[in-house]
């Protein structure tokens, strides 16, 4: 009984929108780039370029660090090889 009275009261009331203004955007104004692979607007292109540049800089720094580590490892291997040669000479393994 109570449920039916709520339904009748809800049906009698008009539905009101809480929004006072419609959302208006001009075409291409910071919207998503076209799905067809188009360039998008200038802001999006600039942001993408900045992100790509930052990624390239990080990769460049990582490569520099890897090159340093590679050089250190090669120097370490050269020292070990030299040390092995000295030990074998002292033991008489090579007659030079």
From TrEMBL:
Protein purpose: Inhibits the enzyme activity of ATPase.
Residue segments, region Disordered: 26-47
Family annotation (SUPFAM superfamilies): F1 ATPase inhibitor, IF1, C-terminal domain
Low complexity: compositionally biased ranges: 26-35
Name by which UniProt lists this protein: ATPase inhibitor, mitochondrial
Record has Isomerase as a keyword: no
Stated family: Belongs to the ATPase inhibitor family.
Keyword line: Coiled coil, Mitochondrion
Gene: INH1
Residue ranges the record marks as coiled coil: 53-90
Leader sequence segment: none
Pfam families, per the entry: IATP
Origin superkingdom: Eukaryota
Compartments, record wording: Mitochondrion
Gene3D superfamilies for this protein: Single helix bin (1.20.5.500)
